[in-house]
Automatic annotation (TrEMBL):
It is found in: Cell membrane; Membrane. It comes from Sulfurimonas aquatica. Keywords: Cell membrane, Membrane, NAD, Oxidoreductase, Quinone, Translocase, Transmembrane, Transmembrane helix, Ubiquinone. NDH-1 shuttles electrons from NADH, via FMN and iron-sulfur (Fe-S) centers, to quinones in the respiratory chain. The immediate electron acceptor for the enzyme in this species is believed to be ubiquinone. Couples the redox reaction to proton translocation (for every two electrons transferred, four hydrogen ions are translocated across the cytoplasmic membrane), and thus conserves the redox energy in a proton gradient. This subunit may bind ubiquinone. Its EC number is 7.1.1.-. This is NADH-quinone oxidoreductase subunit H. GO terms for molecular function: NADH dehydrogenase activity; oxidoreductase activity, acting on NAD(P)H, quinone or similar compound as acceptor; quinone binding.
Amino acid sequence: MDTGYLIETIIKVVVILLVFSALAGIGTYFERKVLAFMQRRLGPMNVGPYGLLQFGADAIKLFTKEDIIPTNVVAGVFKIAPVITAATAFMAAAAIPFLPQFTIFGYTVHPIVADINIGILYILGVMAIGLFGPLLGGMASANKFSLLSAARAAAVFISYEVVSGLAVLAPIMMVGSLSLIDFNNYQADGIGSWIVWSQPVAFILFWIAAFAETGRTPFHLIANDHEIIDGFGTEYSGMRWGLFFIGEYANMFFISFVIPIIFLGGFGDGSVLGAFALLGKMSFFFFFFLWTRAAWPDVRPDQLMWLCWKVLMPIAVINIVITGFVTMF
């Protein structure tokens, strides 16, 4: 194996882990500020100017808080469940091109860990494995409410993985590839070549499914932190509890990259302007996750399942059939 390639890959992996772990904490600060602004509150203000060091204070609290393992839990499974949630989120990042390639000191850097030809399938598959985090965490807890939350989490994840998979199938038929780099290149001719114009239904379906897969409002039924208990995370404390939320916020960032790359032109022709455009699109989708939390109430579990199986999935199948006929003729 080429030594330069190996070193570059290790550096990219370390950078992704460090940057997006930090962004997960910073994302909580922005969420508090956005919610506070929309609800006419101040939000974090006491720790640092404008509360800018609040995420640092949260990190110190999580790292120093006692890690309690309740008496009657299945200890091994209970301990590994949060790691699964965080690990699968970062594993999904391996096939995402975060920026166009660039040259520094004569060396060309490709800001993607692995441009595999099944990139989209890999991302959806790894994110689907993430359901085992809350599922195992809730099942291993000695708490019936955690168990109910785990079952609810599994139902939501599995159901909406079907919708996201069917939604993205139509664009795949158009591009003829599963690589996100190929998706970007397919739309490199400008805004008129964006897939969203020919696949608006797939775009909306994939966007809706993203809320369910990341456990965000209005589909925040996996761990309702506005209830008295915290769902599958009720028995957790300290950094194990924090790993669940690092996984959630990391998933929000990663899916906020995937949506514009598939549907909204990605980074275009690879110019500096295209790179900033991709970061702007990602920022909008991340902000939209926060916006909906302030503006939308949660739906009931039965409504969520009804929406998935009786509305979204039939629409996705019809969209695939129409795309197939259009592609053929």
